[in-house]
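PROTEIN DESIGN WORKSHEET
SECTION A - STRUCTURE
LENGTH: 169
TOKENS:
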């Protein structure tokens, strides 16, 4: 297991996956780890769909039609149930925040297991809802392609310097 500082640097957006299948037990282990993610009022307003059949993969690949995305042997479709999420007094619903935390736990847990992922939000949400017959209160928020990386190369991280966005008051 990597220490946390190494882990956050090992995780990267992988856009080239090996076709090797990922065992169901590995995916279950990943989900067990990530399900400890916190959420507002502990509402856990999420549904996770593990897409690993030719039919479900064909559907999700239509909604995010990129050559690299189709190399991933598994895609996790993370959906938010806004009616189950906490809403602040000023009306702000926290489902997307909760889903982002779950997604972050999943990407880091996957990296810890030697697997690669990539956050994907630029998909056709209406197409996913229709093709997977999702309930009105089950909105796709993030797609996470999951698999073994095709290469061992980890791209260099490009980030602002901490001093550019932190202000001490
Ligand atoms: C909310 C969010 C949405 C993203 N959507 C996409 C996407 O639709 N397609 C894509 O290729 N990458 C997407 N990314 C990946 C970012 O481009 C990537 O995280 C960023 O460039 C930093 O690179 P790194 O993840 O390798 O550290 C997304 C990332 C986040 C956090």
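SECTION B - SEQUENCE
RESIDUE ASSIGNMENT:
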């Amino acid at each position: 297991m990597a220490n946390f500082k190494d882990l956050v640097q090992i995780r990267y957006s992988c856009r080239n996956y090996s076709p090797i299948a990922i065992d169901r037990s590995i995916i279950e282990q990943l989900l067990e780890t990530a399900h400890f993610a916190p959420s507002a009022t502990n509402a856990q307003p999420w549904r996770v769909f593990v897409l690993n059949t030719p039919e479900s993969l064909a559907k999700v690949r239509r909604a995010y039609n990129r050559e690299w995305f189709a190399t991933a042997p598994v895609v996790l479709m993370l959906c938010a149930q806004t009616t189950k999420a906490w809403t602040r007094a000023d009306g702000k619903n926290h489902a997307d925040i909760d889903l982002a935390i779950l997604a972050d736990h999943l990407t880091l847990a996957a990296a810890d297991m030697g697997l690669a992922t990539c956050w994907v939000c630029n998909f056709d949400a209406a197409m996913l809802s229709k093709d997977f017959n999702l309930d009105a209160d089950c909105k796709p928020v993030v797609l996470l392609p999951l698999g073994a990386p095709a290469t061992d190369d980890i791209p260099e991280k490009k980030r602002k310097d901490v001093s550019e966005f932190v202000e001490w008051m």
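SECTION C - NOTES
The pocket of flavin mononucleotide is lined by residues 12-13, 118-122, 157 (CB under 6 Å).
The first strand starts at residue 46 and ends at 51.
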